Protein: ROK family protein
Organism: Evansella cellulosilytica
Amino acid sequence: MMHIPGSFQLMKSLNRTLILNTIRTKGVIPRSEIAKLTKLTPPTVTNIVNELIREDLVVETEPGTSSGGRKPILLSINGKARFIIGVDIGVSGKIRFGVSDLNGQIVKREVKHLPNGSTSEKEFVKLLVTSLRALIGSLGSDKEKLIGVGIAMHGMVDSEQGIALWAPSLKFKDLPLKEELERALNLPIRVENDAKALAIGEVWFGNGQGEESLVCINVGEGVGAGVILDGKLLHGNDHIAGEVGHTIIDLSGPKCSCGNYGCLQAFASGQALKERALKELALGRSSVLQEKCKGDFDLVDGRLIYEAALEGDSLSIDVLHQTGRYLAVGILNILHFYNPGRIIIGGGVSKAERFILEPIHELVKKRALTPRSKNTRITVSELGEEGSLVGAITLVLSELFTQSISR
Ligand SMILES: [Zn+2]
């Protein structure tokens, strides 16, 4: 058995996490209020709070207002008492690293790119370990305050074992990330699929705060989703719950990277967007895209199409509107599978919100089954490009504060 630092284990007392999470969600709170909210006895609250103060996790702040008499001392989380590292491993070979405090504030960032061409699993793990060691080293004395590393990994992930089961763009299979990194770094490692991590991040820090049931769709090179139903993140029997990109929306549709025909991903991903634009260009339709890519159509991508659309380019606007309509079909299916209170769209394609959201709202209003579901809140992620990174950080935070991975 290897040694894992104790911070995680220390948090395992239910009352402790209950009190910690109550302080976190309230921001600042007096002891008496904690007792009321948690239904724990005042002496229990006092004991545990004293323990948390001794460990520097909780601090006393300025007195609150009180109607006469002594003003109560307020407690809050000491954000800088512990740190977490988040890692987001994207489809394109871009790896984002972030160091966060206990309030989810990212205090340090780094981006690395995998070398072009194929990388072996061994080289990949080596790059992760080297980068993480350098990042940890750069923290100085704060490295003693690290409690874990959360990893948002694209593709299929066994989050319990921390294994990247299948990462299509890197062609990795059954890579035991958790085991390898824990051995190299001697820190607790948590691994989750990127869309699922994003969903958790949204509930904690984004547009999903306060939602019990929410679906977060990541639309970029691939299309995946994290489904939180009644407060629980769904994994399914074989880790593929939420793979909405491979739900089939047209039996005679184009071939998908998975080998099937007509998957949502084959219509709505960044790649599908590019292909539709190229088809129109090949048919001779004029567009500022021709100038923008200087004749090299390989350079046409989602970002370029979005920029052109902003300039009023009708081809690009059409392509984005159509993507919105395809996404709307996928979203309608999701809505009728899960009936979430909110649907959040993240990933690169979500940047084009002003072109894709309208057709989505329109179709959902028209086609959803009930008056309330017609008005399901559908927004883009406010966490932006760092959504999955924030999610990766939340994997560790949620364990510290709630003992449950998703809430
Ligand atoms: Zn597919």
Summary: The chain has a mean pLDDT of 91. Residues 246, 256, 258, 260, 263, 265 surround zinc ion (CB under 6 Å).
